[in-house]
Amino acid sequence: MKHLYLALALLAATGLRAQTTALDFTANDCSGTSHTLFSDLDAGFCVVIDLVMMGCPSCIPATHAIVDDVIPNTSNPAMVKFYTIGYTNAITCGQIN
Question: Pairing relation of β-strands 26-28 and 34-36?
Answer without folding.
Answer: antiparallel
